[in-house]
Write a structure and sequence with these properties.
Layout lengths: L2 H14 L8 E6 L3 H15 L2 E6 L2 H10 L8 E3 L3 H9 L3 E2 L4 H4 L13 E13 L25 E2 L7 H14 L1 H12 L8 H10 L4 E6 H9 L4 E4 L6 E10 L5 H12 L1 H9 L3 E2 L23 H5 L2 H12 L3
Parallel strand pairs: 1-2, 1-3, 6-7
Antiparallel strand pairs: 3-9, 4-9, 5-7, 5-8, 5-9, 5-10
Keywords: Signal
GO molecular function: thiamine binding; thiamine pyrophosphate binding
Protein name: ABC transporter substrate-binding protein
Length: 329
């Protein structure tokens, strides 16, 4: 066994399962891939005997449900797709501080992040093209800004950042990096016929069918899964940088059984849990657990540098402006 994996296994076992005397129920709200959330719940229940009630949806809907239930909260643990959503919940005093050093020190350096929670994995946001449905005269783009050219008119989709966590982090960080140039970019995409139909899944479907040629801001795990299934799509990592977005797992301040919630987080961050994260096409956080070969190896493509605390501070205002100016809502 890899020495790092062995070390963290022993540390997490001592944290996770000491003192569990009888079965209990944990409620998990998740914007992780639904299959991953359910697999983690099954594996945890099998190991501990405790039941995990799972509700899965998009990050936008998870955040909306948490807000609606603020006076009578139900979730014990929450997994979302974007780091800024976690920081927003923490700012609102909804998150219980749980980032044990015994786990954090064994994460990949890029995953050792400031915050009262841990990253259960990470995903990319890049461009995806259907190689069999390119517009006449078009070549594969190499830059985010290539997609505003006339040749792409009425040929692109994008996920709605009000629903998709990864898309929201992309929009917020893109605005942080490029300022007014970013807003002009989104306006140009809109003028060029780009549509924002819904979640990542909803935006990807017209590309897989060939109805549309490509997708801006496509989440990596969905694109990789579609490619593995034989679809004629190509992931493109823009020269300005692909966004690598850590995904938080959080214990809610309102969780009545913090120890049970900690045990679930510990299991998710253990080698067994991280292998499930990798199985469902995310980059695992734990050093010593490899991503699937279908994922491009980190370091082989440029990544945009993001100050997550800085961009989180503008989350609400940027998304409100996007809703009004780009989506027209």
């Amino acid at each position: 066994m890899n020495p790092v994996v062995k070390q963290v296994t022993l540390a997490i076992m001592s944290l996770a399962f000491a003192g569990t005397a009888s079965a209990a129920t944990l409620t998990l709200y998740s914007a992780a891939p639904a299959s991953l959330a359910k697999a983690l719940a099954r594996a945890f229940s099998k190991k501990t005997g405790d039941h995990v009630a799972v509700w899965t949806s998009s990050t936008g809907k998870v955040m909306a449900r948490l807000a609606a239930e603020a006076d009578h909260p139900h979730a014990d643990v929450v997994m979302v797709a974007d780091w800024t959503a976690g920081l927003e919940l923490a700012k609102d005093k909804m998150v219980y501080d749980y980032q044990p050093e015994s786990i954090d020190k064994n994460l990949f350096p890029a995953m050792q992040l400031k915050g009262p929670f841990l990253p259960y994995g990470a995903d990319t946001v890049s461009m995806v093209m259907n190689s069999k449905a390119l517009p006449k005269g078009a070549s594969m783009p190499t830059s985010w800004f290539d997609l505003t050219a006339p040749v792409w008119k009425n040929h692109l989709t994008a996920p709605n950042p009000l629903l998709s966590g990864t898309a929201s982090d992309f929009v917020i960080a893109f605005v942080d990096k490029y300022g007014n140039k970013a807003w002009q970019y989104f306006s140009d995409l809109k003028a060029n016929g780009t549509v924002w139909p819904g979640t990542n899944h909803t935006a990807l479907m017209p590309v897989l069918s060939g109805e549309r040629s490509g997708m801006v801001e496509c989440v990596g795990h969905a694109a990789v899964q579609a490619k593995v299934q034989g679809n004629s799509i190509q992931l493109i990592y823009p020269k300005e940088g692909t966004m690598l977005i850590p995904r938080p797992i959080m214990i809610m301040q309102s969780a009545p059984d913090k120890k049970l919630a900690e045990q679930f987080v510990n299991f998710t961050m253990s080698p067994a849990g991280q292998k499930l994260v990798a199985k469902y096409n995310l980059y695992p956080s734990l050093n010593g657990v490899a991503a699937k070969p279908a994922l491009a190896k980190l370091g082989t493509y440029p990544v945009m540098q993001v100050n997550w605390d800085q961009v989180a501070a503008t989350r609400a205002s940027v998304l409100a402006k996007f809703r009004k100016d780009i989506l027209g809502q």
